[in-house]
Each structure stands twice: as C-alpha cells, then as structure tokens.
Amino acid sequence: MTERRRSWWGWGWQDEALHDTQAAGLGRAVADRFDHHPPLRPPPRLADLELPAPRVEPPASLTSICSTDREDRAGHTHGKSYRDVVNGSYGRFPHPPDQVARPRTEQDIVDVLDWCAASGVTAVPYGGGSSVTGGVSCAVDDATAVVSIDLTALDRVLEIEPISRSARIQGGALGPVLEDQLRPHGYTLRHYPQSFEFSTLGGWLATRSGGHYATVYTHIDDLVSSIRAVTPTGISESRRLPGSGAGPSPDRLLLGSEGTLGIITEAWMRLQDRPEHKASAGVRFTNFEAAVDATRAVAQSGLFPTNCRLLDAGEAALSAGVEDGRHLLILGFESADHPVDEAIARAVTIARDHGGEAPEVKAGRSDEAVGSWRSAFLRAPYGRDALVRLSMIVETFETACPWDRFGDLHRGVLDAVGDALTRICGGGSITCRFTHVYPDGPAPYFTVMAPGRPGAEVDQWDEIKAAATEALLAHGGTVTHHHSVGRDHRDGYHRQRPEPMGRALEAVKAELDPNGVLNPGVLL
Amino acid sequence: MTERRRSWWGWGWQDEALHDTQAAGLGRAVADRFDHHPPLRPPPRLADLELPAPRVEPPASLTSICSTDREDRAGHTHGKSYRDVVNGSYGRFPHPPDQVARPRTEQDIVDVLDWCAASGVTAVPYGGGSSVTGGVSCAVDDATAVVSIDLTALDRVLEIEPISRSARIQGGALGPVLEDQLRPHGYTLRHYPQSFEFSTLGGWLATRSGGHYATVYTHIDDLVSSIRAVTPTGISESRRLPGSGAGPSPDRLLLGSEGTLGIITEAWMRLQDRPEHKASAGVRFTNFEAAVDATRAVAQSGLFPTNCRLLDAGEAALSAGVEDGRHLLILGFESADHPVDEAIARAVTIARDHGGEAPEVKAGRSDEAVGSWRSAFLRAPYGRDALVRLSMIVETFETACPWDRFGDLHRGVLDAVGDALTRICGGGSITCRFTHVYPDGPAPYFTVMAPGRPGAEVDQWDEIKAAATEALLAHGGTVTHHHSVGRDHRDGYHRQRPEPMGRALEAVKAELDPNGVLNPGVLL
Question: How confident is the model at residue A212 (pLDDT cuts 50, 70, 90)?
Fold first, then answer.
C-alpha cells in the first residue's frame, strides 16, 4: 500500500482530486449556469514554486523534528479557505514557514516554544490545516521567522475509560485516526465536522468546532471533560470532571483560543456508544418562511433531533437533487439505547403542521434526498478545487442569530451579497442552509458561487466577503458560528466582542505568552 | 397585606421559621437519634446586637440609595452557610457592611463602584444573599470599609421575545419575581435551585447555579444567550446569540466570576414553554452499587430525564419517607410538546435491569416518595435554623466526579468525614444523593448531621469540612459543583485549578478591576 499524500495546495487527498475530465464536466455545468467560459487552468506544480529560503535554523536538539522540505513548507503555508486555495492554485506562496516542526512528544513542543521565545521566532500551531479563516497562515510579517508546528504525530488514544465512557486523546489525532482507535472498543466521539478527515482534536478544541449533528451534544465544547495544553509559561491541565462550578471554566478559556494561548496536547473526551437505532426523513416546503417556522418548532420541541438541517431551494437543488424548487428539511434521529420511531414521527408531524410534505417515515431507512445530500456534503471541497481552476468564486460563510432576527438577517445578507455579486462579478448565486439549530436560533450557512475574473478572484472575493460580514454584524449575527475567527474574521470579531472582554483576553495573552510567540494576528 | 420580612440571621421568611413547639419537636427527634440533649436556644434579637458604627458615609448623590439601618446591616453581614447561620444565631456580627446600597438603575451601580474606587471602599455584590460559601461576606479586613450592594430593586423582565423564546431580565430579579412576570406569557425560565425563592438571576449567573433538573438544560450556563455587566472599568455586553464560535466565550468568563469582575445587570435568558406532559417514578434498590449503576445507565441512555436523583438509604429515610432501608432513584420526565410515557417506561426498564424495583408508572402521577421528597427539599433550610438552635451540626457539601471514580470518592468521603465526626462530635451521620447526572459522571451531594458542642459548632464544622475537602480533592472531585467557590472554598479551588489559568484569571482581574474594589477574597 502506497502512502496517500495530502494536497499541498487544495483539499484533502491528492488521489481524490477531480480528474481533468471531471473538472471539464464541471466547467460545462458552470458555463450553462453562469455563462462563464474561462479555460481550465492546470493545477500548480511544486517544481514551479519560488519559495524564499528559510531564514532560521533550529538548534541542534530540534533538527531531527524540523523540516525544510519543499512540499512540507508549501503544504503548511496556507489553510483551506477559498482565498488559500486560489492563492495555492496560482502558485502564490510568498510566506511559507521557515521550518515545519513535527513534535513527537509534549516535551518537543515545550522545547520548540522555548526556542521560539528565545530566538524571536513565531510559532503557528498546525493540526489538520483545514482552517478556512487564515488560522494557520504563516504570513505574519516580512521580518519574522515562522515555524509551523505540525501536531499530527501526537495522534494516540492514550486511555479509554469505559465506565465514564471517556478517553484521553492526543491533540494531533485526525478524525479518522481517533475513531479507528475507539471503534474496536465500541465507542465513538461522534464529532463530525465537514473537515473530519483533515482536522484534529486539538484543532477542534482550539476553534470550538461544530459537529455534524444539529442539537445537544454536537459542539466540541460540550464533549470535553478536561484539557491539557502547553502554554509558553507552563503546562495547564484541568481536572477531569463531568461538570464543575469552581470559578470560570478553565477549559472554556482555551476553547476558542485558536492557538494564541497554548497548544492543546491532550484532552479527556466524552464518548458515546455507537448508535443502533436510526431514522431520517426529508420534509419539503414550497414556502421558505413556513420551512423556517417548522424548523424552529422542531428545535423548540425538546425532541433533540440528531439532524435538523434546512436547505433552501437553491441548496436542495445543488446538493440533494431536489429539482422542483422546494426547500428541504432533513430530520434525523439516532440512539444507541432506544427506538426513535416515535420521536421522528412527532418531528415530522410538527413539520407537517407547518405545511411541510413528507413521505411515510421508515425507521432505519433514509430518504433518497437525505443520502444524496450527505455524499455531496463530503465531496464538496474537492469540487471547489476544480471550480477554482475554472476561476469560479466558491466560498461559504456562516453565522448564528436569534430566530426573531433571522428573517431580516437572511434578507439583508441576500441583498448585500446579491448586490456585491452583481457589481463585482456581474452575477452569481447565494444559497442558505441551517447547519445547527438551537431553541433560540439557527446557525445559517451561506454558499456563494459566481464567475470570477482570472487572476483577480481573491480581491473580488474579499470585497464580497466584506459586504457579507457587514450584513451579518448589522443584523445581529456573529462573525462565525463554527469556522473560527482566525486572521480573516479578526476585525469583525473585535467589533462584536464586549470591549472589556477584549481587554481581558489581551491581559490573559500577555500573562500566558509574554513574548507573543503563539499565532500573532489570530484573534488579538 | 403586610410585607413579609426576610430573616436577618437565618433562612428565608421570618413567618416561615419553625415555631418553638415545632423546634422542640425536632429536638426530641434529635435526642432520640443522636442522644443529644442541648437546650433550645432562643433566636437572636436584633436589639441585642452590638454592631460597630459605619466607618464611611456615601457621597450626597448616593445617600438616597444607601442605608445604615440596623436590620439592613445585620441582614447583609452573612450568607446562609451553616457557619453563617450559627454565627447569626449567636448574635455574632463583627463585620457588618458599613453601608447597604440599593441601586435603582444601572447608573447607580456605576456610581457606587466609582465611589468605591475613589475612596478605597470595598464593594460586595448581594443578590438574594443565599450564598453558602461566604460569597457575600463583608468580613474583608478590619481596616477596609465595605458597601454591600443589594441588587434586588433591579428585578424587572424588560423584554419578552416569543419567537426566540427569550427574555431580557434584570440581574436583581429573585426566582419567583421573574417567574411571576413570565407566567402570564406562558413561559418559564425553569431554573429551580433549592434557593430559588431567595436568590437572583445575577447571582445564579455569577455562581454558575445548578437548577433542579438532572440533565441537559438545567445549568444557568446553558440558559443564557447574553450578559450585560458593569465592570469597574466599563460596561460589558455580549451579543445575544444562540451559539457562537467567535473566540473564547465572553459569557463564560463572567459565569463563575462570583462578583469579582463585574456586577451582572441584565441577561437575555432562554425560556421554555410550560410543561404539559409529566411522569415520574421512584425505583428502589437494596444494593447501593446497583443503584449507582442504574443511574449511570439512565444518564448514558440519551433519554435526558428532567429528574434523575439517587438518594441513598439515609437520605431516602430522612426526606422521602422510605423506611425499609432501601435506596431510592427518582426519575422524572416532562415535556411541553409530546407525551413522555415511552421515555419513562424505558428509563424504568433500564433501572429494573439493574435490580431496581418500581411500581407501575402512571403518566401525570407522582410516586408518593417523590412528592414527599420534593416538599422536604424546600422546607429543609428552615429546619436547619431550628437545629442550629439545638446546637446540631447540619450542613451539606457537594462535588462532581467521573463515574469511574465515584466508588472510591464515596467511600473516601464517608470514611474521612465519619472519622472526623467520631473524633470531633462523638458521632453523627453522613448521607449522599446525586443532584445532577451527566453521561460521564454524577454530582454527589452529602449531608452531615451531628451533635455540636454549644458555642463551638463553627470550629467543629470547620474541622469536619476540611476533612471533606481533602477527601474530595484526593479522589478527583471538584471543590464545588454548584455551590460556588466564594471565600470558603478558595484554597481548595486554588489547588484544583490549572496554575496558568489561575494566573490568567488574576490578569483579567487586574485589567477589569485595577483597584480591587469588587469582592476581595472571593475566588482570587
């Protein structure tokens, strides 16, 4: 078996990238839909990259874990935002890390951070590298040397505790790597962000990752019982507890710290039994407001569906094969303990009461649209790489807001982004789905597609994104629900957060990382 | 209607205190059980108190909201821990607040804090005054003047938003005061700590209060969508959001800050519809380990019972009338949306699979032991005041731990406290119940009763409590699950929290409250 290689410029595995013929097929679909006929650019070639020479050498004690290999440096230059992939596709790698460090132990991390602090080198923690907000970017400034700390060698499940259904897991474990270690014991962490294959436990915790499930135990915040992290001024380890009222939660300060306060090396995670009972249903609506009301009613019912995902007509057509212009509410229930027939029947009844149409629900059976949506969801980022080569603008952004503000926010975003698309691209589409729902509000997720001007795509997208962010903030949304702040959302985040809490976080940063070694430009 | 008066030395309403004949009845029960025959001391009299004169006068602009009334000062001297009530019962009020301020507006709070900062006066925020950890104590040091800031005039529900089922509520609203304002709209916050009548929303948020319900939405942490607080260096207001991934949660830094970082003036809270469907059942066990296993299985089932409270035989006898020496697991389900028969049937089946015995479950009907337990729960603190007058030691402490550590923790606590009781009191009882359960662990709650030596009760209890805290920390528990840290748990909290996170919190304190005005001695 040959080792699979990760793409150093685009999404995922190199061998899963779309072939030229598949990409050309996408090109024809785009031409039909957007009257957009750019050539299919070839993918970038590693040999063509002009990488600046490394500006710093590690001390002898760290040379064995540091690399200046061309593919390593290119692959750790960008995250996976649209901007990153476009830049990658054009071979733009002006700020690669000077070194890529791959610690094998926690002590290695301590040593790398000590070296950075002593030598004025910046450290950028790197898990799976799937950040879509510039969170792993090494473009700090022109003068400062950067080491990208790739944590994926720290990928072990160290301990499984069956009575509490908990496991101690290293921060660098990618989703499939940790699930493979849990499966033989009958457990699952059951945390499935879209980036599951290419993101790590530590990255999930540092960025407050949102899982695939719609309600209750889906956010990584709620799945963790303790965190161990290396800060530049000492190791922090919280007590493993199911709950505690002892002061402000120490874990909640690291959750969302995005590598600015410390590097998460281990966490005790709450596991679940593998589900035995499943049921799902797709409910169709002709009226979007009615679909939103139905979704809200389900979210407020206390039924706690594992899936409660509303796709507007555009999304339903694009990714679930619903071609009749209707909106689709995907409902799902799962349990390891008890049948879920009654729960899904009640949820479907609620949706029908709001004007939805649903086929008979069968336990264990998936609606065809549901299955189709699921596979499209996981393949989508590979398609984007091909669309980038066709100079398409394809990006998503997301938020959360109270239910009472969603109508205005939705219209406001559609108007603002629609105007921007017309002005900047001469047209394009924006669609919406809910990725998560809460009793008090949804997490709307928007997808933008538009024809780009070859070579100018990043500037075009930046302008569209600015319009989107303004609309989100104006209508009471958050700059991010689960994509994180990174460098890209920093200014919006600063406008959103309470001023005293901004100062509080700066004070924490100064205390824990007095030399400003960790991830400058992120959050703060 | 005459205005009901709060007890200035004991629990709750003056007119609900046990009469001397009731107290004497308790005395006979105690005599039977503990062979303890102290006289029933009379309650303290306000006229007998020797209160030191106020050491500070407010500026003219604040005189109208400040009081030096004798009952006000006495009533704001202590919280409601056993220690507090004993001291109150003996007329020990050496450190009353110099002033009791009752702000009517947020600006009043700003003005009081400005005055404190300018004049070196300490501010102690005071909600309902039900702290059992010294959180509202004014015993700061002998030299510093103290103003107790009573927030209960800020008690309005300012806004109700039905679509998101949310309300903007002032921090000083006591439980019944806010529920009375929500009820006409068909909503409830559904947060019922034992102190419900005598604690405020702001106090719940500041101390991470745990509600009466066993699982999911019961902690105040999960019921809040934004917080507004006056810090000594500016007002902090978070965005009202159902969820957000924008940096470390600003609300989670105030949750648990216990009045050391700011005074919570308003919060947007998540409401619930009033439940329509209810079912409860009591399951009896002869074997405690089996009862624990059953409780764990229910907690891990994903059924999310609203009540899942295990009482050991001692607790079941004391407060639920179960006289046959068996342990009692109280299960309850509630919903505003759908019948809960199937859920409770499944939960009872799980409990029976672990050896529990349960009567037929009837929807809407309560097991007699369940109802009996509920009323005992709410009356218990009044009974304690009478027991204090009988020189009994009566106190509770609580924790949380992973399921796999519970057996050792339980034995360790029973041994350590049992030894201490024998040594210090010549005997006594310690019983255990679970107040909350999580998939990964329970929150055990211990009740201690022992004959005290008149006049020495506080010292005796301090010694017993120290043994309990050592045992909790040694066996992986937390110093508090929902009682808060206050001044009493501070040392244990410092041993428990991660060292870098302790420094982080100190840094936040220095930034937000540079003059150290707010609640010195609490947490930090």
Answer: confident
A286 and A417 inside one domain: yes
Over pLDDT 70: what percentage of chain A?
96
Residues in chain B where the model's pLDDT stays below 50: none
Is A108 domain-assigned?
no
Write out pLDDT tens, residues A44-100: 999 999 999 999 999 999 999 999 999 999 999 999 999 999 999 999 999 999 999
Residue A33 CB contacts under 8 Å (≥ 6 apart), including other chains: none
- Among A234, A511, A238, A240, smallest CA distance to B498 is for A238
pLDDT reported for residue A368 = 66
Cβ–Cβ below 8 Å for A249 and B256: yes
Q: Are residues A264 and A298 in the same domain?
A: no
In a domain, B441, yes or no: no
Residue B200 and residue B294 in one domain: no
Would B456 be classed as within a structural domain? no
What pLDDT, on a 0 to 100 scale, did the predictor assign at position A479?
Answer: 97
Task: Decide which of A454, A474, A494 is a domain's last residue.
Answer: A474
Distance (Å) from the alpha carbon of B102 to chain A's nearest alpha carbon? 25
Phi, psi of B344 (to 5 degrees): -70, -35
> Is A256 inside any structural domain?
yes
For residue B347, list chain A residues with Cβ-Cβ distance below 8 A.
none
Of A272, A403, A510, the CB nearest to B507: A510
Residue-number span of the structural domain to which B359 is assigned: 275-373
- Output b/e per residue, A476-498; b: 16+ Cβ within 10 A: bbbbbbbbbbbbbbbebbbebbb
Q: CA gyration radius for chain A?
A: 23
Tokens of B136: 């509202």
CATH number at residue B190: 3.30.465.10
Domain count, chain B: 2
CA distance A479 to chain B (A): 7
For residue B315, the domain's CATH number is 3.30.70.3450
Q: Give the chain B residue nearest A259 (alpha carbons).
A: B247
Q: Which amino acid is at B101?
A: A
Per-residue pLDDT of A221-258, as tens digits, reads: 999 999 999 999 999 999 999 999 999 999 999 999 99
